[in-house]
């Protein structure tokens, strides 16, 4: 646990090409100007701030954790998350790119997710749900990350909208590595595991029936596919299925296979996909034939035909219905793998458009920029107690770190 010591130890990781790469930045606290608080995380022990790297001017996210206030179990969780960050290398997985200690604080730097989390986008800009084109773009990035994790022998166990992050350049990241669990034992891959995620009450709506049962059958990577189906419903409606149910009733509904997530017309049979017509309601067909007329970006002229469109009335495509039904199968063996889902018809539209065309769907959301207000500190003076002792209301945080 040397990285938790107060000796200024550090390590850097190879990051992606482009504006999200922060591996060349320095590991000196005095080189960072804390600009504004983004949120809190890790049992409220971590303060996350937008910061500017003074020598280069690059904006990053800095998570400061007071190690003195962490229990031994929490220190082990921190160590596990950071060690996993050293192991994983994937362009859709948000890992800790630069980690160092200062006094009794652990500093973890990641690229700034300027659009925040999908959960924050829903609550702030899309309370009635996102367009199918934007949903497809976000879920495709998540599936790429899950495919990688599952191939590496890990189950995520925390797939939800607040763990889907979008950078200012339009890159989709899956975060929440603190919930990741290895399925490898003594060099062999287990078919099922039995560990219950920490602080699972907040995760209950997204967890699969087999994980909640905690029986002798255990659960595997298909548990993440179920969670992805719940996320799809969350992004479509702006509401989390099962969220208002007591835990016992929630489990009962899941065991019965109840998943009334897409509250519109009955889905088309899959055999009719080839003959789908343009909907009179103007919704995205889900297969790239975007014809929405109820755009949030109204203008005097029609929007360009070469980009996906913004949300329209809530008649969902047959492909979206089928995707959700496949993910929410009660029996895990009947759910497709992440690799199989990447070839689903719902994601054909992702390959037909550019990252910029999907970013056009973010209106009226705008990426975070450097605030005009005086910074939190300039530069921050090392303190063993400042993150944990600062009391702020994080309910309005623009970036969810739960």
From TrEMBL:
<dbReference type="InterPro" id="IPR047173">
    <property type="entry name" value="STRAD_A/B-like"/>
</dbReference>
<feature type="domain" description="Protein kinase">
    <location>
        <begin position="32"/>
        <end position="347"/>
    </location>
</feature>
<comment type="similarity">
    <text>Belongs to the protein kinase superfamily. STE Ser/Thr protein kinase family. STE20 subfamily.</text>
</comment>
<protein>
    <recommendedName>
        <fullName>Protein kinase domain-containing protein</fullName>
    </recommendedName>
</protein>
<dbReference type="GO" id="GO:0006611">
    <property type="term" value="P:protein export from nucleus"/>
</dbReference>
<feature type="compositionally biased region" description="Low complexity">
    <location>
        <begin position="383"/>
        <end position="392"/>
    </location>
</feature>
<dbReference type="Pfam" id="PF00069">
    <property type="entry name" value="Pkinase"/>
</dbReference>
<comment type="function">
    <text>Pseudokinase which, in complex with CAB39/MO25 (CAB39/MO25alpha or CAB39L/MO25beta), binds to and activates STK11/LKB1. Adopts a closed conformation typical of active protein kinases and binds STK11/LKB1 as a pseudosubstrate, promoting conformational change of STK11/LKB1 in an active conformation.</text>
</comment>
<dbReference type="GO" id="GO:0004672">
    <property type="term" value="F:protein kinase activity"/>
</dbReference>
<feature type="region of interest" description="Disordered">
    <location>
        <begin position="289"/>
        <end position="317"/>
    </location>
</feature>
<dbReference type="InterPro" id="IPR011009">
    <property type="entry name" value="Kinase-like_dom_sf"/>
</dbReference>
<dbReference type="InterPro" id="IPR000719">
    <property type="entry name" value="Prot_kinase_dom"/>
</dbReference>
<dbReference type="GO" id="GO:0043539">
    <property type="term" value="F:protein serine/threonine kinase activator activity"/>
</dbReference>
<feature type="compositionally biased region" description="Pro residues">
    <location>
        <begin position="372"/>
        <end position="382"/>
    </location>
</feature>
<dbReference type="GO" id="GO:1902554">
    <property type="term" value="C:serine/threonine protein kinase complex"/>
</dbReference>
<feature type="region of interest" description="Disordered">
    <location>
        <begin position="369"/>
        <end position="402"/>
    </location>
</feature>
<dbReference type="GO" id="GO:0005524">
    <property type="term" value="F:ATP binding"/>
</dbReference>
